[in-house]
Amino acid sequence: MTVSTEESLQAISALPNPIEKKKALVLLERASGEDLQSLKKKLKKVENLSSTSFDPLTSVFIHNGVYSKPVMKGKVPSSVSIASFKLVAKSIIKINQHEIVRVDLVSQTNKVYADLVFQPDVWNSLKAFKTRVGSFGEAMFKGTDKDIQEIKFLLFTDPGVCHLKGVTTKGIHPFDGAYCFVSDDLSVDSRGNDVSSDIIYVKGGNYEA
């Protein structure tokens, strides 16, 4: 039995977690071939949003170069910043079941702290996240644990981010149906091609390059 787009949207609207809604809507976009923005508008109608609501798929977004959240000022939709920066994902390295993300931290004054590494435990708590970003003088964050998960989702679903496989030992590894050789700073497949943009050596499981 084929499920219509409308039925799918009704099911998505019942999801309590906004992150799960985002994931489901992206899957629906791929399955239906319909534009994501069009699906978001339809979802708003299905949910019969109140006047105090915003985009059901985004509770954290980037406004004026920093992370912000929607608010109402009287009856007028507006936003309030929850950080003095934004993060720009550069690459995500998956090592076994763990994912390390390399980012640029861009402050409100456009100062760039480049190639920072966020280990998996950074996302585990508000304290861990604030400790990581707080080591940079201009970085202030006054969001919640939920906001951190929203930021993580935005980074990890960025279509422009590079996804790599990380291995903790040098030598021969399975790759693309065959094998490749991984050294300190170079990975070469069985045909002699440089595949360092796909698989890299990560010393001790901590990518700090």
Task: Describe the 3D structure.
With 209 residues, the protein is α+β, with helices and mostly antiparallel strands. The protein folds into 3 domains: 56 residues; 76 residues, no CATH class; 43 residues, no CATH class. It contains 5 helices and 11 strands, in the order αααββββββααβββββ. The strands form 3 sheets. The chain has a 5-stranded mixed sheet, covered by helices on one side. Strands 1-2-3 form a 3-stranded antiparallel sheet, with no helix packed on it. Strands 8-9-10 form a 3-stranded antiparallel sheet, with no helix packed on it. Helix 1 packs antiparallel against helix 2 and helix 1 packs across helix 3. It starts with a helix and ends in an 8-residue tail after the last strand.
Task: Give a brief rundown of this model.
With 209 residues, this protein is α+β, with helices and mostly antiparallel strands. The chain is 27% helix and 32% strand. It folds into three domains: 56 residues; 76 residues, no CATH class; 43 residues, no CATH class.
